[in-house]
Amino acid sequence: MKNVLLILVDHRKDAAVNVQKTLTAWGCLIRTRLGLHQGVQDDCSEHGLIICELVGEKAQLLELQRKLELIKGVKAELVTLKFDD
């Protein structure tokens, strides 16, 4: 089973600091993290996508999702993938 948290960030320059603080505070749950946005140097997009592979109890993962969604301009969705036995 794999738990993946998809985080969509609008107004990236405004929300990035709080998103980073939240992810750092919950860093022990994050196995893999990938951040994507378009643009380079002075031409960065205001929208970003962060994909995190998570470990831990489901309640902890849902709490991380909830904390991120408290940040203005942030949407988060926890996805659990598993094979049927």
Describe this entry's structure for a reader.
- The protein is of the alpha+beta class.
- The chain has a single domain (2-81), classed as ACT-like. Chain A, domain 2 (Alpha-Beta Plaits, 2-Layer Sandwich), CATH 3.30.70.
- The chain contains two helices and four strands, in the order E-H-E-E-H-E.
- The protein has helices spanning 12-25, 58-69, and strands at 2-9, 30-36, 48-54, 74-81.
- Strands 2-3-1-4 form a four-stranded antiparallel β-sheet, covered by helices on one side.
- The termini are close together.
CA radius of gyration is 13 Å
Q: Give me the number of helical elements.
A: 2
CATH superfamily: ACT-like. Chain A, domain 2
**What's the SSE pattern?**
EHEEHE
User: Could you tell me how far the N terminus lies from the C terminus, measured between alpha carbons in angstroms?
Assistant: 11 Å
What general form does the structure show? globular
Based on secondary structure, the structural category is alpha+beta
Amount of helix: 25-40%
- Taken together, the total number of domains comes to 1
Low-pLDDT parts are: none
- Beta-strand portion reads 35-45%
- CATH class category: Alpha Beta
The main sheet comes to: 4 strands, antiparallel
Q: If you consult CATH, what is the topology?
A: Alpha-Beta Plaits
Number of strands: 4
Provide a brief overview of the structure.
The protein has 85 residues and is an alpha+beta fold.
